[in-house]
Hints:
elongated, mainly beta, 15 strands, single chain, four-stranded antiparallel β-sheet, Lipocalin, eight-stranded antiparallel β-sheet
Amino acid sequence: MNIFGLCAMLAACLLTGGTANAAADKNFPPTKIMERVGCVTGEGVQVVALYGTYENKGLYAQKINIVVTQRETGEEVARITPEQDAGYLPAILLADFTGDGTEEIYLGMDSGGSGGFGFAYIYALSSGSTETLFDFSKVPMPYAAQYEDGYRMSVSDASAALQYSLDISARGEEYLSGLYTEDGTLKAPVMADVSAVNTVLPFFVNTDDRFHVLVMRRITGLYNADAFGYTQDFMRWDGTQFTTYFRLVGVYGSETT
């Protein structure tokens, strides 16, 4: 190709978006990520399949959706598209969260990046329509954190009128000297951070004969990698919503010499 042809091609790319737009417009076929078999409607056996598209043959899936069919007939029962329909390592679990003997559909995936947020939903089909029982983005946020005098950090929970106190004295002289005077008094008020929902872990409780969820939020200080621990809310279905029945704060340990 001569220089004039090359210039013409470059001009066309600039006007049309070139290969970038071509890649963006490419129709990537859906991939069946995984499949589970169980009873999610209360009638017979269903196949629950998780689909998504992968643009770069990586771990990040887009256009995530769930298709539920009757195993015996192949008839489609439901098609579910989550509000957050993209993430890393999406997976589904069929488990009884309500205690009615019928399984619900748990969908979980990760955001990736330094925050590492988890996206999670729980869907019920036993009423004849799709009902969202749990949505990670709608879990109440009662926590706040701040640095305190005496080389401590407080994490308050407004929903239960609780406050947790974390000892941060092992953080190191360089770190602490930027925040405190020599007598351990804060040089100025400094807020810490409690993230949005970071992790949602389903787990089985034998005494309740059903699954609950553990919701965790990350506690950080001056920057995102400055992590201290997690808030932990143990939640179960109460007939109308998931509510917290036990809560605590877990902190990272420090190395001993």
